[in-house]
Amino acid sequence: MKILLLEDDTLLAQSLAEYLELEGFEVDIAYNANEAYELTFQNSYDLYIFDINLLGESGFDVLKNLKKADDTTPTIYISALVDTPTISQAFDIGAVDYIKKPFDPEELVIRIKSRFKKDKVVRYKDIEYYPDKKLLYKNKKPLALSNLQHKLFERLLSKKNSLVSIEELLEFFDTPNVNALRVAINKLKKSLDLDIKNVRAQGYILEEL
Q1: For residue 132, what pLDDT band results from cuts at 50, 70 and 90?
Q2: Which of 4, 63, 76, 79: CA 20 to 30 A from 40?
Q3: How far apart are CA 134 and CA 106, in angstroms?
Q4: In the CATH scheme, what is the code of domain 122-206?
Q5: 163: helix, coil or strand?
Q6: Is 81 helix (H, G, I), strand (E, B) or coil?
Q7: What gap in Å lies between CA 73 and CA 36, rounded to an integer?
Q8: How high is the pLDDT of residue 209?
Q9: How many beta carbons lie within 10 A of that of residue 190, not counting itself?
Q10: SS3 (DSSP) at 130
Q11: CATH 1.10.10.10 spans which residues of the chain?
Q12: Three-class SS state of 128
């Protein structure tokens, strides 16, 4: 994740940037509004961390102007201002979070990782599957499966290129039946265009060539 930090306190800015970089983030520092505008013109960022009280334009002014230029980068404010109207204004402008100074840098990292946590995704051909949310996309379009088909697909996908036994797959059936399993696998194969190999009397393999 690439971050732009706008903070006019040189010592705080540098120490915070060093801490964030140790956590694996890439950080650029701007010490005033003009430097921030120049850096956003030259680079793309995943996150802005802005102080509010700055010499010249405030952190509020900077975010307002960036939004006028259709910049939708998520922004976290860090500020010694703790009054409710200021905090409310920050969110009204479009901030996603507000941290009151002084703060533990670890708290900032926790908030960043929590808010911008990437969903785990498993890919197969033109299919994207998000196991945590049980969401399935084919050619970027959402696709719904029956509960049984979903369980079968998830198990085959989790053991891709390995044999999944008939007995293991039959556990998903209320009434275990080999013929019913064969029908369900064929439907799944056709609906998702899966390369499923039938190993006679043993089980099935989801192949990825």
Answers
A1: confident
A2: 79
A3: 31
A4: 1.10.10.10
A5: strand
A6: coil
A7: 13
A8: 67
A9: 9
A10: strand
A11: 122-206
A12: strand
pTM for this entry: 0.60
How far is it, in rounded angstroms, from Cα 70 to Cα 53?
Answer: 23
pLDDT at 119 (0 to 100): 66
In 52-184 the beta strands, taken as DSSP E runs, fall at: 75-79, 97-100, 122-124, 127-130, 135-138, 141-142, 163-165
**DSSP element (H, E) containing 198:** strand 196-199
Q: What angle do CA 49, 107, 120 make, to 5 degrees?
A: 85
Confidence class for position 134, pLDDT limits 50, 70, 90: confident
Rounded to 10 degrees, what is the CA torsion of 76, 78, 83, 89? -30
2-115 fold: Rossmann fold (3.40.50)
